[in-house]
UniProtKB/TrEMBL annotation:
CDD domains: EFh. InterPro entries: Centrin_CML-like, EF-hand-dom_pair, EF_Hand_1_Ca_BS, EF_hand_dom. PROSITE patterns: EF_HAND_1, EF_HAND_2. Residues 1-23, 24-59 form the EF-hand domain. GO terms for cellular component: organelle. GO terms for molecular function: calcium ion binding. Keywords: Calcium, Repeat. It comes from the Eukaryota. This is EF-hand domain-containing protein. It comes from Emiliania huxleyi (Coccolithophore).
Length: 95
């Protein structure tokens, strides 16, 4: 939100994606804007921005990190993660 107006336009979205090293074609940016614009006002507010960037970053870079995290949580090669283990991790992380 370079101009401080409380929302992001397509040109601002393209700019931030390039700065993050993500590919952003005009068509792709327009599609993302359309998909993220939950309230249909033609702009992206912060909660909408978090959704699209989170999805994009996970698609580009997050798979390996997610697989590593899963392996760390999985019970000794079982391929299963207990809900209790995830809950415990999330409630104690950063303490």
């Amino acid at each position: 939100d370079r101009d401080g107006n409380g929302h992001i336009e397509a040109r601002e979205l393209s700019s931030v994606m390039r700065r993050l090293g993500l590919k952003a074609s005009t068509e792709g940016t327009t599609q993302m804007m359309d998909a993220a614009d939950v309230d249909g006002n033609g702009q992206i507010e912060f909660p909408e921005f978090v959704l699209i960037m989170g999805k994009r970053v996970l698609e580009e870079d997050g798979r390996v990190e997610l697989e590593c995290a899963f392996r760390l949580l999985a019970q000794q090669g079982s391929g299963l993660v207990k809900v209790e283990d995830v809950k415990a991790l999330l409630t104690t992380a950063g303490q």
